[in-house]
């Protein structure tokens, strides 16, 4: 039976490109023939909106066919999987009710591992090659849940003056979670929203290159208006505009992810 690889995209800094990177890397993996399950762990539901129109996302948010219900009731995640309409690519949508998930988890036994239990049967079935989780821009019990359910962590970082702000806290949080879940691995840091001509990019790369025990992805994502237009149309970039520079960059990043997890 094949092993299902679970990767969480997380950063406590908002605007880092987490959801966008998760969505487009997931789509590129599915195009390569890998079976991928996306899990939207953020109340903003941006990962869900990357594939489903707003009406469908709001419908699932209200009718209980979402991650919040699965976690609150500690149900098998299989019951909440939707097809995105793209081959090899499924999704567990989020809900605005995720804003109260910390409260729901507070009194639960072994609360850090509830999502891991929800994913257990799907992971062990080997149906999916990859499960990609999108985390909210916070550090707390819910993000700890997402990380404890994962094999790897990817931290998207925006190449901007504030992009590195709080990154040390993210590294510390990762170290704390690793004590609970020793198999969790920091796969690397992916730089997003890059303007190559600006010093912010150079400063970001220099800082990350000098950070001990942190892999810096060679492939980064430059600023591209096609990304926003694709989001506005609820599509991956490579579907909205296959010739877009960012579509090629996400493909290269997905290929780098594969090479790292197969080491």
Can you describe what's shown?
- With 263 residues, the chain is of the alpha/beta class.
- It has one domain: P-loop containing nucleotide triphosphate hydrolases (Rossmann fold), CATH 3.40.50.
- Helices cover 43% and strands 15% of the residues.
- The protein contains twelve helices and seven strands.
- A seven-stranded mixed sheet has the order 3-4-2-5-1-6-7, sandwiched between helices.
- Helix 1 packs across helix 12.
- It is globular, with a radius of gyration of 17 Å.
- It starts with a strand and ends with a helix.
- The model has no long low-confidence stretch (mean pLDDT 93).
Please specify the SSE layout and strand pairing.
Layout: E1 5-9, H1 18-31, E2 36-40, H2 46-49, H3 54-63, H4 67-72, E3 82-86, E4 89-92, H5 101-106, H6 114-125, E5 130-134, H7 141-148, E6 152-158, H8 167-180, E7 185-192, H9 199-209, H10 225-232, H11 237-240, H12 245-261
Parallel strand pairs: 1-5, 1-6, 2-4, 2-5, 6-7
Antiparallel strand pairs: 3-4
């Amino acid at each position: 039976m094949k092993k299902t690889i679970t990767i969480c995209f997380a950063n406590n800094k908002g605007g880092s490109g987490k959801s966008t990177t998760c969505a487009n890397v997931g789509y590129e993996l599915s195009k390569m023939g890998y079976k991928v399950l996306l899990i939207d762990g953020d109340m903003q539901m941006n990962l869900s909106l990357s594939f489903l129109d707003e009406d469908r996302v709001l419908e699932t948010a209200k009718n209980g066919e979402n991650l919040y219900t699965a976690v609150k009731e500690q149900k098998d995640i299989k019951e909440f999987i939707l097809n995105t309409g793209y081959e090899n690519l499924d999704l567990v949508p989020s809900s605005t009710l995720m804003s109260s998930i910390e409260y729901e988890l507070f009194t639960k036994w072994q609360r850090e591992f509830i999502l891991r239990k929800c994913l257990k049967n799907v992971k062990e079935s080997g149906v999916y090659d990859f499960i990609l989780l999108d985390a909210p821009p916070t550090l707390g019990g819910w993000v700890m849940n997402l990380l404890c359910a994962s094999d790897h962590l990817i931290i998207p970082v925006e190449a901007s003056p504030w992009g590195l702000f709080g990154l040390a806290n993210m590294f510390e949080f990762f170290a704390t979670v690793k004590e609970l879940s020793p198999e969790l691995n920091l796969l690397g840091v992916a730089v997003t929203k890059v303007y190559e001509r600006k010093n912010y990019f150079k400063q970001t790369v220099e800082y990350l290159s000098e950070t001990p025990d942190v892999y810096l992805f060679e492939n980064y994502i430059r600023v591209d208006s096609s990304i926003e237009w694709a989001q506005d149309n609820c599509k991956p970039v490579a579907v909205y505009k296959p010739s877009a520079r960012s579509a090629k960059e996400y493909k290269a990043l997905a290929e780098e992810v594969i090479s790292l997890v197969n080491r």
